[in-house]
Fold:
Amino acid sequence: MLIVFMIFMLYPIAALLYIPSFYTFVGLVCVFLLSFPFLVTYRFTGEIESQMKMDFPQVPFIVVLFGFLVGLVNLYIISSNVGGSLGDVFSIDGIRTISYKSTLIRYEKSSTVNSGNPYILALSLFLVFVVGLKQNNSSKIKIVLLFIPILLYTVLTTEKWPAFLGFVFYFSGIFYSNDLRGISTFLRQNAKYLAIIPVLVISTIMIRSGETESISSLLNMVFHYVLSPFYGLGFWLVNSYHDVTLSLGEYTLIGPLSFFSSFTGVFRNSGVFLENYYVYGNVTNIYTAFRYLIQDFSIQGVLLLNVIISIFYSAFVRNNKYELSEVIRLVLVFCALLSLNVTIAVHNSILLSILMCASYVYICLTRKNL
Structure:
């Protein structure tokens, strides 16, 4: 649980360095308060956690190849939605044309028809997670094959979201299946490969926009997307929280609730939150996952929820119900990595992927009798 707490805190600390302001500090204090139960839990379960040895089966290369081909099907769907072909995906001009048309559909026509199939995306993310669970010499080529369709998905649809999710699910597998020493070893041994990540991100932005911008402005665009929400959280807490009417899950669970909108009466709005704020002259309306939770249940309610989760986790660990405690810890790793943007139940494709990952881990641990 220490890793969960550290991930939760890493984002707002980095945000405070990027945007040193009172609002960002308020956001950091809020995150610390709400994630503190997980740190307390580690005080009582850390020794048991450190003694657990988890091992997961290797993913056959044929399964990875299947995931790659299925990802290509998603690219075909995206390109055909704007009148293109799969062949256009493999040329710079074709990519730029599809990206341009996707941008028109997304912003001028306010449509999501340019997006790929969410079930295929969910499967791709699940395979990325499974490959991240078990690292060996063959994992590098496997992860590259799985990431190619995901990165091209981002370029073609002009959505940063799929690429971000790819990295979240990959690192969820790594962070979940290793202790701090193992994570440190992985980061040290793979530093040269991890350095490629910002290069890929910047390259996809350049191809997507088709414009020539300085590296510094592109990096600032990435930092703004990742770190500004914590400034926004503090801004919202200071200026608007006192007027909030609790919505009791309508924001946190908007994915499944809007899916059954005929029964729930809940419908998804583009962007979810209408209020905008500015950071270094750039506008955004993202407020981290904590606003979803707080707007639904209040600060006290979210803190109580995390305390209850921690109690259940501790009880499962102390009673050797590791297959259950590990599922809780895995879901919390996902919650922490996604916290800069949304909860795990805002998008149904994410929720489906996480359910697949949790089921996989549960089955593996049950069979192993950890």
Remarks:
- The chain has a mean pLDDT of 85.
- DSSP finds 16 helices and two strands in the chain.
- Residues 1 and 329 are 7 Å apart (CA to CA).
